[in-house]
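Example record

One chain of 144 residues, shown exactly as stored in the release files.
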Amino acid sequence: MDLTVVAYVIYLLISVALTIWVARTLSRNGKVFLADVLHGNEKLADAVNHLLVVGFYLVNLGFVTLYLKNSDAVADARGLFEALSVKVGVVLLVLGVMHLGNVYVLNKIRRRGLMEREQTPPVPPQGWTGPTGQGPWAAPATGR
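Predicted structure tokens for this chain:
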């Protein structure tokens, strides 16, 4: 069997396994974070979590398959390890960037929600009080 084909098979096995492991880890540990972002709505958090996992799989497995082609033929064991290290390293970097992007976006959403909660008064306003005419901003007395 050609070593290039062996490199393809090993690359696919490692990349798919890594993608599945990262997606499951992010899904399992991200539920609490999503529940906080979505103000405790567990059902919505589970739905968003599932959608994020599906998108994660589609993007990463799509990248893995597009990145499968090797420009040079693999001639020996050294070339096999070199080709695999480059390919798996790039896949790991893409997985990391995807993860950081997701966390960044969700953190922005979470911060916006926290700011909205802080701006809401604990009780609704009961009335309006106009300026009293005292203090440094008040108009000077006319002397009449």
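Notes: The first helix runs from residue 3 to 37.
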